[in-house]
Amino acid sequence: MKEEDRNPSQAARREFLSKLGRAATCVGAVAGAAGLGVVSNASGKSEPASEGASFPTKDYDWTQHQWAFGVDATKCIGCLRCVEACKKENSVPQNAHQFRTWVERYVYLEGEDAAHIDSQQDPVNIEASGSQKEFRFANRYKNAKVEKAFFVPKLCNHCTHPACVQVCPVGATYKTKDGVVLIDHEYCIGCRYCVQACPYGARYFNEEAGVSDKCTWCYHRITKGLQPACVEVCPVGARIFGDRKDPQSPINLFIRNNRVQVLRPESGNAPNVFYVGIDKEVN
Amino acid sequence: MPTHIFRLLCLMAGALVVAMIGKSILTADSFYRFGHYRANSVPEIAAQEPVFQTARYCLSCHTERVAVWSANSHKSVTCEVCHGAAQGHPKNGKLPVPKDAVKLCTLCHEAMPGRPSAQPQIEVAKHNPYASTRQQCTACHNPHSPKIATALVKLTGNAAAGKERATSCASCHGAEGISPNDTWPNLAGQNAAYIARILGAYRSGDQKDVAMTPLAQALSEADIQDLAAYYGGLSCKAAPSASPVGDAAAGKALAANCAGCHGETGISGNPAWPNLAAQKPGYLVNVLKAFKAGLRKDPMMAGVSRGLSDADMANLAAYYVGQSCQPKK
User: Fold this and answer.
1) Is residue B228 within 8 Å of B162, Cβ to Cβ?
2) Which of A194, B77, B182, B321: CA 20 to 30 A from A78?
């Protein structure tokens, strides 16, 4: 008592040191636990690496490919076989408002500046097909004075800098090494940020499954050496698909032999679907 | 340091420990392997089975069909476009043959603004007015080789030689190729390529007729060419025919169906197909009946005649007999 009175600063120091010791114990525990976490994480990471050099399948190495897609709108006849094939191939809900790929029709009438735009989900076209599971373009401009018209197939652009990947809060969508943007349906929490973020409207929300969905360029087909289903069924060759790493691939020939453009280049997403034969109104 | 601050720090440190342990347990093993995503989801997506199997798959059994298809203009339209995805076939049964060909074919071939001009397109109402009721596209077109074959016969005949050979034909077809009988066809002015083709068919047995078969079999290849040249060069001067039983006006409406091949007024656009203008009505009716009954064989005419009643045939014959056989200038 007397001693403390005599030297209060010493007592305060002793108290501080004892507290510091306790705090150090706490921090040590944290660091230890964190270390444990890191170690267990690292061991988890090394596990799948033992499968071998080829990823994602034993016959397909994604570092050897860089996929890209071409659309020749001057060839498209609007038969919508691609849309129906895509739905079958990828189990897209059988209705007239959810699509992984779709076709738009741009019609300029004489004396009008703006284009009339419709797609297969337009009520008039649904009525013409007679079903929400089959699609056809109604011949609605048969008797109109059409100055110019064309069809434009649309799909996910598999951008080099995809906005949808950037906004995903849980890492459920990502860019693969071979240039495809995929969705991990197990990790998707259904927040729909990505649906909002896509400047092309390429994503839709699957209410039944509670996840976002979109075109994968038929990743399960291209990794087996097949073409995407829409390219496979297109009767006029309006859809072109191939590997940018193969100089003689259809897509490289397409890009080399045509003046190509991408949709909304100003968005900075750097799309990988290249278009021929569209107006600036198409975006 | 005040005690409450110290406790708060300890609590936060504890929460951090729990969070990090939790994350290490709950994060999927492959999550950070290539980036901020679960690497194992890539092989999972890649493992999905393809639904569309490509034409190579079809080729493994349907060799003949694929050979016909791949040699013709529909070769860019793969099997599964019309027959549906082949996953599970043949284990799970047959793939459908499209029933409503009009609906299917017009998906690509209906004339529509926006379709490129290189795409073959039809105005359904003109090309096939009965599309909605009875006439399928497949009546005339083989979907595996849709272009109508017009096997052009080379014409090498000599009309003068043909005139001599024609003496044996004159008793039925008339000295100048104008038949005296309502049920035998006029030959004068008929397309030479058509005459040569039909005589060749009688000779080879592809087409049969009690009278014509033995006569044609007595002809040589050169005789046929000469006869075709002779009759093709004759004037079809329209001799008055027996007054027809049918209604020509009704026939005219029906004849819009035939115009694609036989011309609007019965003057064929292609020399391999016959002119019908001013032809004997009884003969035309008999031929149509023979096509309908399958006695005369032609894939296109079989389909076309299937939908015609006896009255339709009489009306058509009445229309054609009234047309001028002189080609329009």
Assistant:
1) yes
2) A194
Which CATH number belongs to the domain containing residue B295 in this structure? Answer: 1.10.760.10
> Are the beta carbons of B9 and B17 closer than 8 angstroms?
no
Domain ranges of chain A: 2-41, 165-213
Q: Which of A76, A182, A227 sits opposite B45 (nearest CB)?
A: A182
- Tens digit of pLDDT for each residue in B179-223? 888 889 999 989 888 898 899 889 988 888 888 999 999 999 889
Share of chain A above pLDDT 70, in %: 83
The pair of three-digit structure tokens given for residue B162, joined into one six-digit string: 């043909």
If asked whether residues B215 and B169 sit together in one domain, one would say yes
**Which chain A residues contact residue B30 at CB under 8 A?**
44-45, 47-48
Check CB contact under 8 Å for A33 and B52.
no
Among B30, B80, B112, which would you mutate to test the A interface (most chain A Cβ atoms within 10 Å of its Cβ)? B112
Number of separate domains in chain B = 3
- Six-digit token pair at B74? 């529909």
Residue B11 lies in a domain: no
Contact A245, A64 (CB under 8 A): yes
Question: Could you give the angle at which helices B281-293 and B299-306 cross, rounded to 10 degrees?
Answer: 100
Of B233, B259, B294, the domain-final residue: B233
B257, B243 Cβ separation under 8 angstroms: no
Q: Which CATH architecture has domain A165-213?
A: 2-Layer Sandwich (3.30)
- Residue identified by tokens 């800098």 is A161
Which residue has better confidence, B1 or A220? A220
Q: Do A141 and B113 touch (CB under 8 A)?
A: yes
Mean pLDDT of B146-153: 66
Q: Do B296 and B258 share a domain, yes or no?
A: yes
Q: Do residues B80 and B52 make contact, with C-beta atoms less than 8 angstroms apart? A: yes
ipTM over 0.95: no
CB atoms A171 and B113 under 8 Å:
no
Gap from A247 CA to chain B (nearest CA, Å): 24
Min CA distance, B151 vs chain A (Å)? 27
Looking at the predicted structure, is the pLDDT value of residue B44 above 50? yes
Each residue's pLDDT tens digit, A42-80: 444 444 444 567 899 999 999 999 999 999 999 999 999
Which residues does chain A have within 8 Å of residue B17's beta carbon, measured at their own beta carbons?
29-30, 33-34
Same-domain status, B263 and B317: yes
CA dist., res. A281 & res. A268, Å (int): 18
Closest Cα of chain A to B68: distance in Å?
17
Q: Which domain holds residue B188?
A: 159-233
> What is the identity of the amino acid at A205?
F
Given an 8 Å threshold on Cβ–Cβ distance, is B38 in contact with A184? yes
